[in-house]
Amino acid sequence: MKSFYHLLRFATCLAMVGVFYPVLSQTPAADSALIPLPAQWAKGNGQFVLPNPVTLQIPVGDSLGLIADHIRSKIEMSTGYAVQVQTGNGAAIRLAINKKTDVAMGKEGYNLLVDAKGIQITANTAAGLFYGVQTMWQLLPAEIESKTVVKELNWTLPFSSIADKPRFGYRGLMLDVVRHWFDKEQVKDFIDQMVKYKYNFLHLHLTDDQGWRIEIKSLPRLTDIGAYRPERTGVFGSFKGPQPEEARNYGGYFTQADMKEIIAYAKARFVTILPEIDVPGHSMAILAAYPELACTPGTYEVNVGNRFMIWPPGGHFYGLVDNTLCPANEKVYETLDKIFGEIAQLFPYAYIHMGGDETYKGFWEKSDAVKALMQKEKLKNMDEVQSYFVKRVSKIIASKGKKMIGWDEILEGGIPPDAVVMSWRGEKGGIEAAKLKHPVIMSPSTFTYVDLYQGDPLAEPPSYGNVRLKKSYDFNPVPAGVDSTYVMGGQANLWSERLHTVRHMQYMLWPRGWAVAESVWSPVRLKNWPDFVARTEAHFKRADQAVVNYSTSMYDPIVEVKKVTDSSIQVVLSTEIPGLDIHYSFDEFYPDFYYPVYNQPLLFPVGASSLKLVTYRNKQKIGKSINLPLDELKKRVKMN
Ligand code: ACM
């Protein structure tokens, strides 16, 4: 009913402007490739050219003033044009808040019209106008993203009539600022990047085994001790543990003043910060500061990326060192009361994320205090002990006037009332939680873990698992059989164990972050993979202008290895995007355009020790030169 009304309204809007025709699922011109796709978009014949100076009409208001600043600084930076705010009619860019609320448009929707008179954006709210402005940037040439003035360019926008609104109210990105320390300016820059794609929640993973990154004034040791560790570079998980003589000088933390600045910066861009304090597992940094909070007596060190948890393939993980808070120690709850009290004061959002993931309970099993707790509280097993802890935390959070979010492990042993489940171990937890009538945020590792491999592991920086771009694009936050009213939205997660630089972080995030953005904003009926690929390529140019890194691994082949005999293998190649040729060689030379093109499964020739690959499109090298040693490929199949 609602969407019918929306279409009707849209048709009226088209009739009014006359010359527009819908381009709902066609591949748009590269200079107007929108990500995420708007709900409705009709393109007209003609284009509007930004004049110099650019006149801007915008209503008065706090957040509207910030939007005006945003428009002015971006236009001045890339075009060199002056921007003049005017009160009368007839400005080149006209922003207006609806006098009468347009119910179908919702809180974040907007209409955008580009015609001979200029650009007009209308919305119910400042947030809606801001999203309309983000779409406006994408209608302009890629150079609008430049950080320096680009001269002698026509700043054109195609005539368009757009009626848009998000599919979900929660559109999140998670950034792990613990394993790699991303500082205040880097987080602000991250926010600038995410809002271009209409993300509105930044989940900050603030605490973990490798550091504590938020000032808690009543517990200064958390950051004095917990925020620093000896520096390591290379492959996380393979590092030597901290040595007594080493300086603990890698890391940092946000003071509460820093965090207030980030929160305000985010708010001005319509982004809400969701803080995560990850307990009872992932707690080595707290234990380094307050070892008495563990069930296992001893001294603890902030982890540097040395292995202390074992993840047997297909089996249950187990810890070599206790990294958990003791659920049977009242001092733990007193400490958490202080922590969540300050977090609740600092962050305006109604929810606090308490983590709850990957708690190894083997040390709890050995603890007399936990045994006594089980007897006293009639807890039958370790899941119920964990649930006891989670429920106590939920009460602490509620006592501060907030509600809790936790990773899907909070379902184990019984979920606290009102808790939101963030489903990460696939979609299972989200499905179960929605059935229990709990709100869910979907962030399944199978689709939205943008720290995982996005191409062949032999051609990528070290990671785990595999989520290629197509898989991220296939993300649907409402799994089959789930009542969508319980789905708040979706989120992509960027863990930073294996990131050492911002360039690497951006490489992992984009373009998969674009695919997830479309999954959480655009109507599912508009999903079209080849069309998304074309738009992604247009956005590579935008990212180049903005000096933001991205991965082009979508051009690289998918490699499958099959066993033929006990000593020989066959390699099956494919690509995830259409129109590529894979050239190959077994002769140790890196192939080029004149080498054979793959057209059927390849049997490794006797004596060959590697397969080398590269993809071309229209005679242009487009993929990476990839070396696949036979020994490595053999590891992918069980050879006798
Ligand atoms: C998680 O990835 N451990 C939530």
Keywords:
single chain; 640 residues; alpha/beta; Chitobiase, domain 2; TIM Barrel; Immunoglobulin-like; 3 domains; eight-stranded mixed β-sheet; eight-stranded parallel β-barrel; 18 helices; 30% helix; 21% strand; globular; disordered N terminus; binds acetamide
Write down how many β-strands occur, each being a DSSP E stretch of 2 or more residues. 29
Annotated CATH homologous superfamily of the largest domain: Glycosidases
CATH architect. name of the largest domain: Alpha-Beta Barrel
Bound molecules: acetamide
Helix content range of the residues, please? Answer: 25-40%
Continuous helix count? 18
Whole-number average pLDDT?
94
The CATH topology label of the largest domain is: TIM Barrel
Question: Could you characterize what this model shows?
Answer:
This protein is α/β, with parallel strands linked by helices and 640 residues long. The chain folds into three domains: 2-164, Chitobiase/beta-hexosaminidase domain 2-like (Chitobiase, domain 2, 2-Layer Sandwich), CATH 3.30.379.10; 170-549, Alpha-Beta Barrel (TIM Barrel); 556-635, Immunoglobulin-like (Sandwich), CATH 2.60.40. Helix content is 30%, strand content 21%. The strands form seven sheets. The protein has an eight-stranded mixed sheet. Mean pLDDT is 94; it is low at 1-19 and 21-30. The protein binds acetamide. Acetamide is lined by residues 357-358, 407, 424.
